[in-house]
UniProtKB/TrEMBL annotation, chains A, B:
Positions with biased composition (Basic and acidic residues): 164-175
PANTHER family in the cross-refs: WUSCHEL-RELATED HOMEOBOX 4 (PTHR47716)
Official protein name in the record: WUSCHEL-related homeobox 4
A cellular component term, taken from the record's GO annotations: nucleus
Similarity field: Belongs to the WUS homeobox family.
Main location: nucleus
Gene3D superfamilies: Homeodomain-like
Homeobox domain location: 80-145
MF annotations from Gene Ontology: DNA binding; DNA-binding transcription factor activity
Species per Swiss-Prot/TrEMBL record: Panicum miliaceum
Length: 230, 230
DNA sequence: GCAAATTAATGATTTATTCAAG
DNA sequence: CTTGAATAAATCATTAATTTGC
């Protein structure tokens, strides 16, 4: 039914062609902003907006990441084994995650994520983002599931529908029972600091870099998106 | 004006009292996990609200994180002064950001954000997240503005409304005009790798690691939320 | 039995909303 | 009222299941 494969095919074709030029990363000294890689204001192409960056990935980390997207499965389905594309949780990992979820954890902070990641690392490759995403998705889908269920229940048991949902939404279900769910507050998150950097900055010719103190336990940073040019 | 402070106060009070005893995590098979700090399954209260890190700067990562959750600003709401609450972009910073935006940048990747942050750091305190959020918000609000405008235009010029929007949204406007909006593809982002460290702290003492090739330019990490217990 | 073709799950991103500081 | 910060909802894309033709 779905044309997923077509999509993929087209996708890959494109991928193959693109080249990427991530910016020549000149030294971050920022002497001149103009020199910033920044994809030249990201205007790379006047017209091509959406581009999906051929380069997409890594700069920072995972080299294998890149490799994967190219050919990997065009040929056969077998994967290179080393750096697959996306995280595939092992049963044990899932077990732990679900345990935590049932325990009441919903949105672990960076520290917690770190801890969990470490723990789960014992059972297979995993990164913090995986944990983060897992909780987001699980929470959302669990809620969604409940919603649907509740709706069904309502429609079958009672006849009065206090609220008409546009489609199937349920007002505000209560997620898990535990937790008093006090007032709904939003609070700051704990972002890692990008770099020691910046702050002082003072003048202009900063050498910067500086830090890189290897001792860093780990750097956290929310940064989310990627060059996408929407 | 607003009573925000009260909210915070109440919130904090609660925080002080709770202690949290997460369900005894009967470890399925993963022995060590139980020992994890993890804030005990996060059953504890969402930590301190907004704190604005008193001394943020370099410390690189989470040490302060921990500190924060404890007491930090339970006392008064007033902020220490050094670390104000939220980022307040200087005119120069905004100028640069808008320039980039007009240049076409919409969703800078982690590397770009880093670069920008460094650059803007010259004009005042700023962190990567600020840049990240700025683009998110600017993009969203710009679009929103356009939407509204487009809608108005439509309603005044033409009379036929192809689509009825629930409120005011426009189906799928094209953001900026230029751009061919080729196939909409989504690509991977560049997360920092969490582990790397892992090993050391690892509760079980697994050596693992392996990679950790120090070459990493910087560690990025999206982590978003925080303990919230919904 | 198996591999291509689908379909169902779910990992990863992006967009829309909401909250609250200034 | 503007807008930085944070979260939730909506989407997209890839992988595992499952089905189907041989």
């Amino acid at each position: 039914m779905r044309l997923h494969h077509f999509h993929v095919a087209a996708y890959l074709e494109k991928a193959a062609s693109t080249s990427s030029s991530p910016p020549s990363i000149s030294s971050p000294s920022l002497s001149s902003f103009a020199a910033l890689p920044l994809g030249a204001l990201q205007c790379l192409r006047p017209l091509a907006p959406k581009i999906s960056f051929p380069e997409k990935r890594k700069m920072v980390v995972l080299p294998e990441f890149a490799r994967v997207r190219n050919a990997s499965r065009l040929l056969t389905c077998t994967v290179p084994a080393s750096g697959t594309t996306r995280w595939n949780p092992s049963p044990d990992q899932i077990k732990v995650l679900e345990m935590l979820y049932r325990g009441g954890m919903r949105t672990p902070n960076s520290f917690q994520i770190e801890q969990i990641t470490e723990e789960l690392g014992k059972y297979g490759r995993i990164e913090g983002k995986n944990v983060f995403y897992w909780f987001q998705n699980h929470k959302a889908r669990e809620r969604q599931k409940q919603k649907r269920a509740a709706l069904l229940t309502l429609s079958t048991t009672t006849s009065s529908l206090p609220e008409a949902e546009t489609k199937d939404g349920l007002g505000k279900e209560e997620a898990s029972s535990s937790e008093d769910a006090s007032s709904r507050k939003r609070r700051c998150r704990a972002w890692g600091d990008v770099h020691g950097d910046v702050t002082t900055t003072a003048g202009a010719g900063a050498e910067v870099v500086a830090d890189c103190t290897d001792d860093v336990t780990l750097e956290l940073f929310p940064l989310s998106p990627q060059g996408k040019a929407n």
